Amino acid sequence: MPIDLPEPTPAAKEHSAKLQALLASRIAEQGGWISFAEYMQLALYAPGLGYYSAGARKFGEAGDFVTAPEISPLFSRCIAQQLVPLLQAWPEADVVEPGAGTGAMAAAVLDELARADALPRRYLILEPSASLRERQAAQIQAHAPDCAAQVEWLDGWPATPLRGVVLANEVLDALPVRRFVVAAEGIEECGVTCSAGELREARRPADAAFATAVVERLIDTARYPLGYCSELAEQAPAWLTSLSDVLEHGLVLLFDYGFSRTEYYLPERTSGTLRCYYRHRAHEDSLFWPGLQDITAWVDFSALAAAADAAALEVAGYTTQAQFLLAGGIERLVEPAAAAEQVATATALRTLLLPGEMGDAVKVLALRRGAVDLPAGLAGRDMRFSL
């Protein structure tokens, strides 16, 4: 265990032990080794045991990490304000939010749209977790009670063609990834084994298809030092393709930590982008108490743009979160307040906007199908040339 991480409670350890037993069983079934992607899938999403499937609190001060909507409602209000002209002119449009977390974004967006008389026909939340649905419903009831009738929960993408706006904040970085290492004998794939009941990292030669995909991304493997490790996210483009299959007409806004491909696979980024979060501490031990911590990998936005092109979705914009919020007028939403509230607001804005915080690390990718007006936040710095 990393030495600076708090010790889990006995109940949390018991929960993790059940997941470790499931993992050990799966490893045995697969001949003693599973890919990191399969490990990450089970660690995060195993029914009733995975990090996102169990009922423990994950978001906010009492959880393991904080996302932009929890940092300040200004984030969600700024997005909502930019959607007002579109939704006022399109009364039959829906707004869809996959992976709505605590419901903070949904509540703030709905409240802001209601003030502007621009509520969508429906606000659809894609959320399979029963515990998170309850928390989202409570958040909406507390902060946007008059909009609760607009909200519907779904397990996945709608079965009928979708027309409207999709808002996805920090969804793609939680999708399982395959990990690889540049070795003397070629590309090796990272995985997990189990010895005497203990999970261990292990590598084996990558299969031909995976090795080819890795080499295509690295372009010149001679530039990379032996031991260079990174990720290949196969599920994120597939997620986008499934969205495209149901999107008949509309706008997609994706907010996530990530890079374009040339930045993602820099030779000096020798350990990749994988990070784990436990009690607001970031570390790199993905085997630490499975089921009790978040595991994420930054997004390859070039791969998403390529998937969008293949799915006939227009890549309409790509910029940083800071540029999107500033061009979208977030400063105009700051209202006069008491001194303590002013300090809290200033702190939140620094986190959302500064380069050393979320400002440059989080990117915004805008996709559209059909003639849809773009948010004002995309009128600033256009970074599509980097994809």
Query: What is the top-level CATH class of the largest domain?
Result: Alpha Beta
> Which topology of the largest domain does CATH recognise?
Rossmann fold
Number of helices: 12
Instruction: Give unreliable regions as ranges.
Output: none
Helical content stands at 25-40%
Roughly what fraction of the amino acids lie in strands? 15-25%
Outline the structure in words.
- The protein has 387 residues and is of the alpha/beta class.
- The chain folds into two domains: 10-55 and 176-232, no CATH class; 68-173 and 241-266 and 292-386, Rossmann fold.
- Helices cover 35% and strands 24% of the residues.
- The protein has helices spanning 10-29, 36-45, 68-71, 73-88, 104-115, 130-143, 208-218, 235-246, 261-264, 301-310, 321-327, 339-353, and strands at 34-35, 94-98, 122-126, 151-154, 162-169, 178-183, 186-195, 198-205, 229-232, 247-259, 275-278, 281-283, 294-296, 299-300, 314-320, 362-369.
- Strands 2, 3, 4, 5, 10, 14, 15 and 16 form an eight-stranded mixed beta sheet that branches.
- β7 and β8 (198-205) form a beta hairpin.
- The model has no long low-confidence stretch (mean pLDDT 93).
